[in-house]
Write a structure and sequence with these properties.
Layout (H helix, E strand, L loop, with lengths): L9 H10 L7 H11 L1 H8 L3 E3 L13 E5 L5 H40 L12 H4 L11 H15 L4 H9 L6 H4 L5 H10 L2 H11 L4 H19 L36 H16 L3 H10 L16 H7 L7 H4 L6
Antiparallel strand pairs: 1-2
């Protein structure tokens, strides 16, 4: 079907929402919100307050779960509050990832550097089989060759940094691993960790999380995915994760409740639980969980039984309770 929807002015956007049953008390404020956020982005946060399509009801696509009409008494402020909550959640995720990323830099530099200061620059100090896996995009190249090329390009683009200039001018231009990790993007760092030998991986992962290197690699991919979503201001609330947590081992008892529902390990709550667990181990305090509690209180209520009550994220993270029905787990996503 050809796309034929017309462009709507800001006033028409407000009228469209109101005409579908969304209560808009302050039209001037609603106009300002739509102007700042954009109608399409805003509609993702208003979507859960629309009337669900019955299981036997007609739908245009397989990912359409709701009609255009809003449930009775749904208010513009609900979607606005949900948008504000999602923004606060993204900032929380970035704060936690910062702690974990810096700790990972330190541990990789320490443990890989113990074998060779330039262990990242040679397969001889990494796991050859992992390095030789085909690149996901260019199957004619190895994953490690692609990583080295991107790292070299990143090093060149960072050459204006004083500590890099110092190494180039005084030494042979190679950065030892404990310096190289400081310029790596989180994704590059996680990829390098994936190339490390099992013994070296385990030293890092045991220090940071008390789990095996294989489990921690998957956890770091999930953390990096959540970091990228947050850094690029995409919707994090009510999202199905592309990089999911696997089954949690018994060596991480604070997260074992995620095994009760496989579905929960692919939702945003799993990321929050993981980051709470890791930040508490790295920082040796519960400040992030306290911040999560404040953020959790910002989730609005709803007239719809599917999305009606606050999901108690912080309480479940702090108490390691099983995941229950919640706004972030049960509401269907906005089709995009």
């Amino acid at each position: 079907m050809r796309y034929t929807k017309p462009h709507l002015t800001l006033d028409q956007q407000v009228e469209r929402l109101s005409g579908r049953g969304l209560q808009v008390g302050d039209t001037a404020k609603a106009r300002r919100v739509l102007e700042a956020v954009g109608y399409y982005r805003f509609s993702a946060y208003a979507y859960p307050f629309r009337v669900p399509i019955p299981p036997s009801g007609a739908r245009d696509t397989t990912v359409q779960y709701r009609t255009d009409a809003f449930v009775a008494n749904a208010r513009f402020e609900w979607a606005e509050d949900l948008y504000s909550f999602d923004r606060a959640l993204r900032l929380l995720i970035l704060d936690a990832v910062e702690t974990i990323e810096i700790a990972l830099r330190s541990k990789i530099g320490y443990h890989l550097g113990a074998g060779d200061p330039f262990g990242h620059l040679s397969r001889d100090h990494l796991d050859a089989a992992k390095c030789d896996r085909p690149d996901a995009v260019d199957r004619t190249r190895t994953s490690y060759d692609t990583w080295r090329e991107r790292f070299s390009a990143h090093l060149l683009s960072s050459s204006s940094e004083d500590f890099i200039s110092h190494h180039i001018q005084k030494y042979d231009g190679r950065l030892p691993i404990w310096a190289a990790t400081e310029i790596m993007e989180f994704g590059q760092l996680v990829r390098l960790f994936g190339f490390m030998r099992d013994a070296d991986q385990s030293r890092v992962s045991k220090d940071l999380a008390g789990v095996s290197g294989a489990v921690f690699v998957r956890w770091m991919k999930t953390a990096n995915y959540a970091r990228n979503i947050s850094a690029h201001h995409a919707r994090l609330w009510n999202r199905t994760l592309t990089y999911k947590l696997g089954r949690v081992p018994e060596t991480a008892p604070d997260l074992i409740h995620l095994n009760a529902q496989a579905h929960s390990r692919s939702r945003t709550y799993a990321v929050c639980a993981l980051l709470a667990f890791l930040t508490q181990r790295v920082r040796s305090e519960t400040g992030w969980i306290v911040a999560a509690a404040r953020c959790d209180g910002r989730i609005p209520g709803s007239a719809s039984g599917d999305t009606g009550d606050a999901h108690g994220l912080s309480r479940r993270v702090a108490d390691s309770r099983p995941v229950g029905r919640s706004l972030s787990l049960s509401a269907r996503p906005h089709p995009v």
